[in-house]
């Protein structure tokens, strides 16, 4: 809706331009603040949250792997139990394993 008054038309254009400038200035301020925060984070050797979470997950996976590797030699040191199928096969063939042979 256009008014017939040129003063109001010019005032509306001026207001619209001012709003555009304010929005652009806000975006520029946000960009400048983000750059400043990134610079400070780099200066203090800080990391981002997503990097921290990824590293935390990797450490948890490595801890599980280390625990599994520690458990593996213990399982090898323990004598293996024979399954019932292996025992019956051994009885059928008549072979027994005796240490020292």
Summarize the structure.
Helices cover 76% and strands 0% of the residues.
Descriptive key words:
101 residues; single chain; mainly alpha; 3 helices
Give a written overview of the molecule.
The protein has helices spanning 6-43, 49-77, 84-93. It has three helices and no strands. With 101 residues, the chain is mostly helical. Among the domains are: 8-46; 48-77. The chain is rod-shaped. It starts with 5 loop residues before the first helix and ends in an 8-residue tail after the last helix. The longest helix has 38 residues, at 6-43.
| Distance, first to last CA | 107 Å
The main β sheet shows up as:
none
Helix count from the secondary structure assignment: 3
pLDDT < 50 stretches: none
Mean pLDDT: 82
| Helical fraction | over 70%
Helix/strand-derived category reads: mainly alpha
Number of strands: 0
Strand content: under 5%
Our Rg estimate from Cα atoms comes to 38 Å
Order of helices and strands: HHH
**Judging from the principal axes of the Cα atoms, what is the shape?**
rod-shaped
What is the topology?
Layout: H1 6-43, H2 49-77, H3 84-93
């Amino acid at each position: 809706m256009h008014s017939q008054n040129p003063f109001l038309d010019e005032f509306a254009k001026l207001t619209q331009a001012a709003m555009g400038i304010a929005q652009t200035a806000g975006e520029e301020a946000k960009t400048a603040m983000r750059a400043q925060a990134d610079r400070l984070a780099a200066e203090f050797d800080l990391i981002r949250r997503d990097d921290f979470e990824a590293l935390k997950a990797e450490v948890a996976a490595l801890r599980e792997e280390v625990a599994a590797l520690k458990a593996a030699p213990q399982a090898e040191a323990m004598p293996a139990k024979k399954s019932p199928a292996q025992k019956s096969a051994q009885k059928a063939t008549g072979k027994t394993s005796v240490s020292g042979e």
